[in-house]
Amino acid sequence: MGTLSQTRPGPAATKGLLGQAAGPAIRWFEDLGLGDLDSAGGKGANLGELTRAQLPVPPGFVITAQAFLGSMEAAGVRRALAKEVAGLNAGSPEALKAASERMRARVLEAGMTPELRREIEQAYRALGDGQAVRVAVRSSATAEDTAGTSFAGMHETFTNVSGADAVIARVLDCWASLYGQRVLAYRQAVHLAEEPSLAVVVQAMVDSERSGVMFTVDPSSGDAGQVIVEAAFGLGEVVVGGKVEERTMKAARLHAYGEPLRLEEIPAPTPGEGEVVVRVLGAGFCHSDLHVMNGEIKIVPHFPLTLGHENAGVVAALGKGVTGLKEGDPVAVYGAWGCGICDFCVSGQEQLCEAPRWCGLSENDGGYAEYLRVPDARYLIPLTTLDPRQAAPLTDAALTPYRAVKRALPVLTPDHPALLIGLGGLGQYGLKLLQRLSGVRVIALDVSEEKLRLARALGAWKVVDGRAKDAADQVQALSGGKGVCAALDFVGAESTLALAVGATRSGGLVLHIGLAGGSAHLKPLFTSRFEVSYEASLWGTLKELRELIALVEQGGLTLVPSEVFPLEEINEVARRLKRGEVGGRAVIVPG
Length: 591
Fold this sequence. Notes:
The chain is α+β, with helices and mostly antiparallel strands. The protein has four domains: about 190 residues, 2-Layer Sandwich (Dna Ligase, domain 1); about 40 residues, no CATH class; about 170 residues, Alpha-Beta Complex (Quinone Oxidoreductase, Chain A, domain 1); about 140 residues, 3-Layer(aba) Sandwich (Rossmann fold), CATH 3.40.50.720. It is built from 18 helices and 25 strands.
């Protein structure tokens, strides 16, 4: 957790209904007291009193009720919301639900002003001294929460929120909870027609195994002779929220194509019959996920979705009927989950399933989260010597080239070189595996001088700079003018596939592995030689992953270097990968 900055951003004034200044939008705890109930709400005002009394209160700030009203006014929905609340007369649960959904949608669509968003971002950065800190985002009812009325437990509270974007999203959710079904029912029951308003507290988190609240007066009877303590395991939201205790976890989720991932607190999975929940200790960040996030590959069946299909960790919970595993066992997760009944699945090629249920790329959430539900224990490969963070990239970044090289083995011969295009994480494993499994001479081609130096260090026979205008001629010359026996394209762009097709000798094989959006064009006598085969290779089988992990653990294949990042930095990892700044493989560590 970051330290509390001594430098506070200056307060910004919001505008009231008639345009007059309505006070600062952001107020720090040390500036608040009981006289600020109408602005900071009960929680905010009391936290201010405790801070000013120099009690050990975790630092934080309040987004005032005036900031909420100002944002609704700026969006042109404040009058409509106030009018609908004043005239609320829902005669049935269905009508109340419809009114709640309508008003909540208005608030979320209205959002907040750009000025307020900047103020919150600035305050959040100041809270962590420039670092992304975990915070609680808590609704704080204002002056209408009095001795005669109480909204305790009715508005939203969120814990373990990290990152400015996530904080802003949770503030909007708190605002929308002003118009929750339970809140509206209560307002109608006690005949409250005043315009609702709400402050929101943003406070640095303190880890706790148990939390609670103590009442010096029995809240149900008013008896001052009793002290009542309510407590629960965890962070205490179940006590004040009146909720059934629910285990939650951090996850990075995709809400729409073209957007960064959002860090959220969501329910942790529990295993059903035959299922296993894995605590994720490593999740490889794959270039395919970048294509999905950008909308270049539109296969997401619903939003939001937790991405991440390269996973490893330890067994956290076992469903009924699972045998051969126990809690704490380190495992790698095979991610190409299939339907189990199509021809491909029953033949062991689940990655080619006609109705795929892939981890993190279908209706099933992936591993950019603290926990992962695995639908069948057979998808788990026990690890004996590998650390899960090392094993995670093997489930795709090494498995995909392992299958591709195996597919190429029938045409790989010592008297003709093979061509490998693209020396990213997959290409590096491809180079290692070509040498390990076949002994073929490898011509490595890339547009990065650093990657070409790496290829030489890894044992490539020759290297070619793909930026050179005569790159294709160089490959032909290195093959003695006869062409390569196989071309493995780990990029998959239009230009690289054209080079691969043109470089392959008669009877050779072109393997299309990368997913950069290109297509291969084979036209004998024009773009290709005769009897050149083409395959679009995909991932690998469960059996092949078992073989691969055994190969690594027995010392037959060395690992490609990886960089480890916390879940909070996942969007920065995506930006670095897009810029080509990840040398080997990036591994996300959610826990």
